[in-house]
Design goal:
By secondary structure, this protein is mainly α. The protein has one domain: Hypothetical Protein Ta1238, Chain: A (Up-down Bundle), CATH 1.20.1200. The chain has helices at 30-49, 54-74, 94-108, 124-147, 154-174; strands at 16-18, 24-26, 118-119, 182-183. The longest helix is centred in the last third of the chain and has 24 residues, at 124-147.
């Protein structure tokens, strides 16, 4: 259980922050950028939920919780030293990835195949889900970059990869099951 009785600590005033294992690193480190961008994805999900209802809102709520799990995973390095910590670090697991895959497959089955790229837009919810998708792709790029330097849970990277696809499909669902997608017309505005 997390207890936050004081919001500011002044411990970051020198440009460093604490990771989940207690180590201090520069706030501009790749690891902090990766989990910070996951936090940005979560903020865009919060905005999308303002336009979502029913099962879509419930699905976005699950994703939001997963994103906190993911941030905790990325904020705690040294997976091989997990047993040395006084707690069990939260790690993304395969079932979180496979749930996204199931939901993508179920929802994509309702859609006509694309014959063109689509532009972000259509309904408010669809536009917001496309913003979620693009910020998620940035988080994925940062997690992949981090994995070239340090050990990263492979399920965390897979989750980000599937989640951006999930946002894409949900954006199409939010556009009247793809019927109101805004199609890209190459060279249209030349």
């Amino acid at each position: 259980m997390v207890v936050l009785s004081k919001i500011y600590t002044k411990t970051g005033d020198a440009g460093e922050t604490a990771l989940g294992n207690g180590a201090r690193v520069a706030k501009h480190s790749t690891r902090v950028n990766a989990y910070g961008t996951v936090d940005e994805v979560n903020a865009t999900v919060g905005l999308a939920r303002q336009f979502a209802e029913g099962w879509m809102d419930e699905a976005l709520a699950r994703v939001s919780n997963d994103l906190f799990d993911l941030g905790a995973d990325l904020a705690t390095p040294d997976m091989h030293k997990d047993k040395d910590l006084p707690y069990t670090p939260l790690r993304m697991i395969e079932s979180q990835v496979s749930r996204l895959e199931r939901e993508i497959d179920e929802q994509n089955a309702k859609l006509q195949p694309l014959r063109s790229f689509i532009l972000p837009g259509g309904s408010r919810l669809a536009a917001q889900l496309h913003l979620c998708r693009t910020v998620c792709r940035r988080a994925e790029r940062l997690a992949v970059e981090l994995a070239t330097m340090e050990e990263v849970n492979a399920e965390a990277v897979k989750y980000l990869n599937r989640l951006s696809d999930w946002f894409f499909v949900m954006g199409r669902i939010a556009n009247n099951d793809g019927k109101d997608d805004v199609l890209w017309v190459p060279g249209l505005t030349r």
